[in-house]
Amino acid sequence: MFANFIYFIIALLILTLYQPKEKLEFSFFQAGFFFVLLTALFAFFTRYQFKRLLIKSSTGSLHTQDNWFTLLLTRHSILALIFFAVSIWVLHLPAYLDATGLFADFPTVSTLLFLFIFVGHLVIVWYIAYDAHRAIYQSNISRKEYVYSNLAFNIPILIPWALLSAITDIIQVLPFEWPRYLLNHKLGQLGLFLVFLFVTATLAPELITRFWRCRPLEPGPERTRIESICKRADVRYANIVYWPIFGGRMITAGVMGVVSRFRYILVTDALLRMLHPDEVDQVIAHEIGHVKRKHLLLYILFFIGFMFTWYPLFLVSAAIIKFISPWILALGLPIMIVSYGVQAVVLILGVVIYFRYIFGYFMRNFERQADLYVFDLFPSIQPLINTFYKIVASSGQPADKPNWHHFSIQQRVDYLRQSQASPSWIKRHNNKVKKSLIAYVFVMLIASPVFFYFSWTYLSENQVYSDVDITAQVETYLNTKTDLVMQDSKYAFYLGQYYALKKNYILAGKYYELGLKLNPDILSRNGEIYLILGNIYFEANHHRKAVYAWEQALKLFPDNAEIMNSLAWVLAITEDQKIADPVRALELVSKAVNLKRASHILDTYAEALYLNGRIEEAIKIEEEAIELDPKNMLIFKKQLIKFQKAASTKNK
After folding, report:
1. Cβ(211)–Cβ(256) under 8 Å?
2. pTM for this one?
């Protein structure tokens, strides 16, 4: 499950960072044909590899067979991820769905749809791997049960993401400006993530136990013993339930839930059937150890920490893109796609390193800490050691098999015996975990604000990770490749963006217009381009064009205060009598100021009031703008003096 957790995060990154091409190489039917062909090749190759494993499995020891099976399962899970990436980035399957416009307002639905393509590839692997699994581990569960158990074990990974994304989609379509503004702000995103994380950590166990089809453990001696252990440890819970994963044939238990009201203790049928009551007691004590040592709460901390790692990863990808941009341009490669590709590689490596090594380090040591908690309730650890060896015997896996999120069973047994002989080993490990946590928190508290600041300022201002930051090489390169500029709209837009950054708005407008001429359909896919055009036309003193662009933008974003303010300002101050309209300017900015009471909008409001003869009101509003934004006092003061002079003349 933990390895698949990383796979699912990578799959989400592949989808999130995907950028559709303007011109697709394949038609819808061609892309569909190649997708089916790739899936068939994947299934054929997977079947061939597991059939080879099944043939040679009779020649090796159980330890060797287990290694072969685990390695092959991992390889083909990664291969499923690669085939998924090819379907998204090479065949451009999302572009065909986007073209229908069915999921424009709810992108989470389309993302889930494509994630199920990845899940489908995993199902192919599990379905084919079943025969080898049954032969090697002497399993008697059906193929259907094996596949379903793998699905049930992994699909809950997507539940928190799906819920958060759905909430985001709903906020975006609500007829209110401030939730969208908050959501588009980094601090707003962080706040929503933190609130959602704690709510999910609280309520998710309720959903997951239902998804896993868990049922309450019936009254009897087994339940009574478990209840007694929990009472001794002073641990409260919602229920004790059967965990039917893999038909309940695994000797395992679990605990879910940060809050006691939604906390569940899970046990499998095999655990109750194959273990002695004393052994069951100590397995439950181990799970209680996770609760008592606050591991479930600490896992939330690590997910928060993972979010903060995005900032240094973005900085790294930005630096790489900036460094290689001259070569990208020289080779004539699509800048935007290469940029997002680099970003994807950096982020994927970051995910693997963080969860595989940092998170994995703490998981291993938390498991050991939970093992050692058993000493708090029992004088001897032997029943837990006996349990470990029964797990080895029933699973067919060797005791010394390494695991990135658990110490091997032999390592766990050895440490328990050392701790039994010398209790100082218990304190030693608890101190190790404590110091590691302090170091982790210290690094996060020091490094995260620094990276957050640089990513917020440097990345947002310079946009080095996107196609906007091409620096002077864009002008040099694209002006020598006029055929590219004249034939492909994206290169025209590159130059338009470049000249806008250089404040050469006449050339910026020229190249944007060329881009729109080459690709007029972009306006139906990216309405914000009207807003950009309006800004460019206004700065170039083309007020009629600016009014047209902002009118179109306002149709798409009717509750956007900034668009209303920009349109109101040009209607108020323009000298072009054919478009000047102080009355409509006042109407627009009155709505804008109710949505967003910012100083620059108040300044526009004051100007509109002044032009409509409401000079005393204009003076009060301009004074409010000065009070709200003293940094721009000189600009606002000049306006105020103008209004005051007009009021004085009127009174005379």
Report:
1. no
2. 0.65
